[in-house]
């Protein structure tokens, strides 16, 4: 029988893949970015973190278990999330004396990813989003998704975009305390239901340079980076929101590919340079460019995060021309993943 002293809540959070990239922090303690960013959420039916948070007067210390392995949660970022959530629970307890004093109990958090953690598929985004939402549900916090995204941001920047579904922007904000640096929904997944994403796995190995380290090296040493943050991204954010609202795939694709290339250019402009894409990644770029040239318009859009794997967006009606050709040309070189989704659905390869 379940122990009545144990309070428990479970939730899922999805993976998101940015089409306007976050890269660079203006405040490393609060995880405040140097530019806004925008992502597409992959369906959590297929790519997601499942997290259960529980607390009990019998638990002796906070614990986090990810994919059956104990994790170190002493880091400032996880601690910031726990501190904020406990603070909000204390407010609930102060208002209503009859609710149990959960804020004083140790937490046990158990998480599982249904995708390889090391495959460069934004596992920290889904991970921190699920952790924050599971604890917020356990504590029955009245917080909005925007408020929870502000908390998740402190765990990992990109996590703030995984508190929503569909098309999500993270506004960089201007306040020093980060109070206005949170995510908002640009459009729900249902707005553009025939959007698809295919994930091409060029390597499932852990990356050499973590995002956190790589982006701060770029901030420190790349002049191109300043131009990106100040001039390129602000205009692109506006254009990207508009083309999503208009379901204008050709513009969406153009902006997505340009922004991926611009982000990787700032990595290359870092001293010493940071290489995330490899020969296989570049082969995927060439094939996508050839598909678009043959179609006479952009019908697929590649994007690469801090790793060599490609995510290719396309519209369902072009499945054969995009996924079929990518498979026939690159099939021997890349792992193929049949990640399905509603907002975003991958081809069966
Ligand atoms: C993004 N990436 O917008 C960009 C594109 C990678 C390339 O967000 O230090 O793991 O935890 O805030 O969120 C990866 O950075 O970095 C990332 P932290 P995070 O998705």
UniProtKB/TrEMBL annotation:
Listed GO molecular functions? ATP binding; diphosphomevalonate decarboxylase activity
Enzyme Commission (EC) number:
4.1.1.33
Query: Source organism's superkingdom?
Result: Eukaryota
- What are the residue boundaries of the Diphosphomevalonate decarboxylase-like N-terminal domain, all occurrences included? 13-183
According to UniProt, the reaction catalysed is: (R)-5-diphosphomevalonate + ATP = isopentenyl diphosphate + ADP + phosphate + CO2
Where's the Mvd1 C-terminal domain?
197-349
GO BP terms: isopentenyl diphosphate biosynthetic process, mevalonate pathway; sterol biosynthetic process
Q: What is a single cellular component term in the Gene Ontology annotation?
A: cytosol
PANTHER family recorded: DIPHOSPHOMEVALONATE DECARBOXYLASE (PTHR10977:SF3)
Record-given protein name: Diphosphomevalonate decarboxylase
To which species is this protein native?
Answer: Friedmanniomyces endolithicus
Question: What is the gene name?
Answer: MVD1_2
């Amino acid at each position: 029988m379940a122990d009545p002293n144990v309070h428990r809540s479970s939730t899922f959070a999805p993976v998101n893949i940015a089409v306007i990239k976050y890269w660079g922090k203006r405040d490393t303690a609060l995880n405040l970015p140097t530019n806004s960013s925008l992502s597409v959420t992959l369906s959590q039916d297929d790519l997601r973190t499942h997290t259960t948070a529980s607390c009990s007067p019998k638990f002796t210390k906070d614990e986090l278990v990810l994919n059956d392995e104990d994790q170190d949660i002493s880091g400032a970022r996880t601690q910031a999330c726990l501190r904020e959530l406990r603070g909000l629970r204390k407010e609930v307890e102060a208002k209503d004396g009859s609710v149990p004093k959960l804020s004083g109990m140790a937490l046990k958090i158990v998480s599982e990813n249904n995708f390889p953690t090391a495959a460069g598929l934004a596992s920290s985004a889904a991970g921190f989003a699920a952790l924050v939402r599971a604890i917020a549900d356990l504590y029955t916090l009245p917080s909005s998704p925007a408020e929870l995204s502000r908390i998740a941001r402190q765990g990992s920047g990109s996590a703030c975009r995984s508190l929503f579904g569909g098309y999500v922007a993270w506004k960089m904000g201007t306040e020093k305390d980060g109070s206005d640096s949170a995510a908002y929904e640009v459009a729900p997944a249902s707005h553009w239901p025939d959007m698809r994403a295919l994930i091409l796995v060029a390597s499932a190995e852990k990356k050499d340079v973590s995002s956190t380290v790589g982006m701060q090296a770029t901030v420190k040493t790349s002049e191109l980076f300043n131009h990106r943050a100040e001039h390129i991204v602000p205009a692109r954010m506006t254009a990207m929101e508009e083309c999503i609202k208009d379901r204008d795939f050709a513009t969406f694709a153009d902006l997505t590919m340009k922004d991926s290339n611009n982000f990787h250019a700032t990595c290359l402009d870092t001293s010493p340079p940071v290489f995330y894409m490899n020969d296989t990644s570049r082969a995927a770029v060439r094939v996508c460019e050839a598909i678009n040239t043959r179609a006479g318009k952009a019908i697929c859009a590649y994007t690469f995060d801090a790793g060599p794997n490609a995510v290719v967006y396309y519209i369902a009606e072009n499945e054969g021309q995009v996924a079929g050709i990518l498979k026939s040309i690159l099939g021997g070189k890349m792992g193929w993943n049949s990640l399905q989704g509603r907002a975003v659905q991958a081809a069966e390869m």
